[in-house]
Amino acid sequence: MIQIQHISKDFGKFKVLKDINLDLQGGECIALIGPNGSGKTTLIKSILGMVVPTAGDILFDGKNIQQKWTYRNEIGYMPQIGQYPENMTIGQVLDMMKDIRKMPEDTLDLDLFHSFNLPALLEKRMGTLSGGTRQKVSACLAFMFNPKALILDEPTAGLDPLSTEILKDKIKKEMGNNKLIIISSHVLSDLDDMVSQIIYLQDGNLIFHKSLHQLKMDTGTDKLSKAIAHIMSVSSPSK
Amino acid sequence: MNKVIRYVLADLLRNKTIICYTILLFALSISVYSMEDNYEKGLISLLNIVLFVVPLMSIVFSSIYLYNSSEFINLLVSQPLKRTNIWLSLFAGLAGPLSLSFFIGVGVPTLMYAFSNSGLILIGCGLLLSLIFVSIAMWTSVLIRDKSKGIGLAILLWLYFGLLFDALVLFLLFQFSDYPIENMMVALSMFNPIDISRILILLQLDLSAMMGYTGAIFRDFFGTGLGMGITLGVMLLWCLIPLWLSVRHFRKKDL
């Protein structure tokens, strides 16, 4: 569904992404893992067109996304830090998004809207919300328009355990609907029972892209966290 | 495109600063016109206030608003919207309320007390200046990421157009007073939209007789239909060029 071909990105002299190639298909839940500053968020923002790569192409459903915008109808994005206009209420933000996406009311996916109990908070201003509630609004917006691809950047950071479970259940449910889900997270224990493939980035380089099963076989471990710890300890002395 | 304009407009028309600005301009205009018995004197007093306040308000308010809505812009960019449309909507959303404030604050009293050619030109120039300085603010705020630097640059640019440019022109005038530089002065004034407005309005009043030979040259140029047309064109370019540059930059900006 998403092809990433030879993507590089420089911020001045600093190379954030170095010649990344990926082929991501629907029905997969892909974990994007790497140390801080390894280029995960930049890669995600490149797919969304928020960051313009220095070189390379990104194809969505076979079409180049450069300077295009309609393809974003098919993507639900949950940012790392949800930034919303401070003086708008939750209700206004939701209305604005519905207005932008132009989807009929009865086709909206309101599962998270209800299970996070957002109807009770509609009058609250975004500026007064806690980090966790902002995350709930972001998650609700990402899933609301039934997108083909979901991109979740640190989705569980700041969420309480109950909400984390609700979100994980929702992600698993959407995986069954042949959607492509990309999750970037440091909470490996959350990922273990959800993801099917792992992408590991370090210093802007793609270290590997393989299935979770394969990774566990290669490292001889039974948990994702142990496998990643194994990878990190092998790769760090070489620096 | 008009969806985004609607949200920005709804936000700005309730904005306290915009409402205060309108009331301030209105109070100033009414008091200036009722103090002077001759409307031309009133126009000149008002002219100086307008040329000072309108650019300041337009450039500083727009810069602050754009920096404060960076989150809103980020949110919009990740949605299925065209970047050019987002940026032009922001321009329209800012330029609309600011021009409307000027029209209510200065335009309406001028139409009531000083309905004349010079009055109409004052309104036209004020509206164009609002657009021009919003457009310059769009450009500087897309170029500079840091909020305090960006607002500092906005204030510097206003100082440059409002004060420093005139000081430079005066300096040149004295240095080259032995040479025939009158035509050059006309060309030079085109580099500052505030100066263009000032000359245009002064020439409509009888005051230009006091401006000596340079005044006569100005009258020869700005007084004719062609001169007025060129001037209007230059003012529109002042509005369009920074806006175009800002759109070009925003389309490729990393957010």
User: Which residues of chain B sit in consecutive blocks of at least 5 with pLDDT less than 50?
Assistant: none
- Shape verdict of chain A: globular
Order of helices and strands of chain A: EEEHEEEHHHEHEHEEHH
The gyration radius over C-alpha positions of chain B equals 19 Å
Mean pLDDT figure of chain B: 89
- Relative strand content of chain A: 25-35%
User: How many separate helices of chain A?
Assistant: 8
Kindly name the structural category of chain A.
alpha/beta
Overall shape of chain B: globular
Give the biggest sheet of chain A: 6 strands, mixed
Describe what you observe in this structure.
The complex is a heterodimer of chains A (239) and B (255). Chain A has a single domain (2-235), classed as 3-Layer(aba) Sandwich (Rossmann fold), CATH 3.40.50.300. In chain A, 33% of the residues lie in helices and 26% in strands. Chain A is built from 8 helices and 10 strands. Chain A has helices spanning 40-48, 90-101, 111-115, 131-144, 161-176, 188-191, 212-219, 224-235; strands at 2-11, 14-24, 29-33, 55-60, 63-64, 75-78, 149-153, 180-184, 197-202, 205-211. In chain A, the strands form 2 sheets. In chain A, strands 6-7-8-3-9-10 form a 6-stranded mixed β-sheet, sandwiched between helices. Chain A has a 4-stranded antiparallel β-sheet with strand order 2-1-4-5, covered by helices on one side. In chain A, α7 (212-219) crosses α8. Chain B is mainly α. Chain B has 11 helices and no strands. Chain B has one domain. Chain B is 84% helix and 0% strand. The interface between A and B is medium-sized, with 25 and 22 residues.
Give a topology summary.
The complex is a heterodimer of chains A (about 240) and B (about 260).
Chain A: E1 2-11, E2 14-24, E3 29-33, H1 40-48, E4 55-60, E5 63-64, E6 75-78, H2 90-101, H3 111-115, H4 131-144, E7 149-153, H5 161-176, E8 180-184, H6 188-191, E9 197-202, E10 205-211, H7 212-219, H8 224-235
Parallel strand pairs in A: 3-8, 3-9, 6-7, 7-8
Antiparallel strand pairs in A: 1-2, 1-4, 4-5, 9-10
Helix pairs in contact in A: 7-8
Chain B: H1 2-13, H2 16-35, H3 39-68, H4 70-77, H5 83-113, H6 117-143, H7 147-175, H8 182-189, H9 193-204, H10 212-222, H11 225-251
Helix pairs in contact in B: 1-5, 2-3, 2-5, 3-5, 3-6, 3-7, 3-9, 5-6, 5-11, 6-7, 6-9, 6-11, 8-10
